[in-house]
């Protein structure tokens, strides 16, 4: 079966017009017609019929079933072409969320040989966005944060480590004298909340629900972790944050959460299913796991 035939058919499902499909691919209309006939012969089923009353080509039920598979096949073929093209560049396209970057990037740079590190192309974004990029083939390897161990059908996932959350307060705040605090005690505090790309959002909801409090928001949906730190430092509000993310930050004090709710920031390694790592990528991935374990 010719994969180009599937591309023609997918376009025909979309436009229901042979002439338009031919124009889009720069071929003659008979070329498209013959491609559809080959597919009908291959599957021994009528895929298209002509509604002469409305002058439109319609897709049969068999055609609709094939269209669903054709879309997935064409996407995989396109992804394969893209991945093979990138082999020649020898780049390691690596996704890293800002918070995990804060925790580990310096240690990664020290651990990974310069000959490999020079080929690492870092894409920084929130974990949800990086997962989307991984599935689309825009990156090949990522470290992802989550509020529970990841379970993604199209991605190989290896749990590397987990980190506790803390409440971050300004050194100027009276709360800075505390070592531990429960969420119920924070009912009257002003919180700084994160953009939805951060997994912290789900953890905050869990703590608020557990404590039966409705938070007062000082600043809503901050898109960058460094901004959150600065707002906390200036005592604009308090924030939930992975404890190590604000380690040794001047003017910020982490308070241990004195609630039994077992919320953790999980750090996982993710690789798109079907992607074959190069020798350098395998070595890079192995070192990532070592760095995460050493930093526990």
Automatic annotation (TrEMBL):
UniProt keyword list: DNA-binding, Transcription, Transcription regulation
The keyword Flavoprotein is assigned to this record: no
GO molecular function annotations of the record: DNA binding; DNA-binding transcription factor activity
Leader sequence residues: none
GO cellular component, one term: cytosol
Membrane-crossing segments per the record: none
Stretches assigned to the HTH lysR-type domain: 1-60
PANTHER family given in the database record: HTH-TYPE TRANSCRIPTIONAL REGULATOR YBHD (PTHR30419), NITROGEN ASSIMILATION TRANSCRIPTIONAL ACTIVATOR-RELATED (PTHR30419:SF8)
Family: Belongs to the LysR transcriptional regulatory family.
Protein name, per record: LysR family transcriptional regulator
Organism this protein belongs to: Limosilactobacillus mucosae DSM 13345
Lineage, uppermost ranks: Bacteria, Bacillati, Bacillota, Bacilli, Lactobacillales
């Amino acid at each position: 079966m010719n994969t180009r035939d599937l591309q023609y058919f997918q376009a025909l499902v979309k436009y229901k017009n042979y002439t338009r499909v031919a124009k889009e691919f720069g071929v003659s209309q008979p070329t498209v017609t013959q491609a559809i006939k080959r597919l009908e012969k291959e599957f021994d089923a009528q895929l298209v019929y002509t509604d002469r009353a409305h002058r439109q080509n319609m897709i049969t039920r068999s055609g609709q079933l094939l269209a669903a598979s054709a879309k997935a096949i064409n996407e995989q073929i396109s992804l394969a072409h893209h991945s093979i093209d990138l082999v020649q560049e020898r780049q390691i396209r690596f996704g890293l969320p800002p918070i995990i970057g804060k925790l580990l990037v310096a240690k990664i740079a020290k651990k990974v040989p310069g000959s490999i590190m020079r080929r690492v192309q870092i894409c920084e974004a929130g974990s949800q966005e990086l997962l989307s990029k991984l599935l689309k083939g825009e990156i090949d390897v990522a470290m992802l944060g989550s509020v529970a161990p990841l379970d993604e059908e199209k991605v190989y996932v290896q749990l590397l480590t987990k980190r506790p959350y803390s409440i971050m307060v300004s050194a100027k705040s009276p709360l800075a004298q505390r070592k531990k605090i429960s969420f119920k005690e924070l009912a009257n505090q002003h919180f700084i909340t994160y953009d939805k790309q951060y997994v912290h959002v789900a953890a905050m909801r869990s703590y608020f629900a557990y404590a039966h409090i409705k938070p007062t928001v000082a600043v809503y949906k901050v898109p960058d972790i460094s901004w959150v730190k600065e707002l906390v430092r200036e005592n604009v509000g308090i924030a939930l944050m992975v404890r190590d993310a604000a380690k040794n930050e001047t003017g910020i004090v982490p308070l241990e959460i004195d609630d039994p709710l077992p919320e953790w920031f999980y750090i996982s390694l993710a690789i798109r299913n079907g992607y074959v790592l190069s020798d350098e990528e395998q070595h890079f991935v192995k070192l990532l796991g070592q760095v995460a374990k050493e930093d526990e």
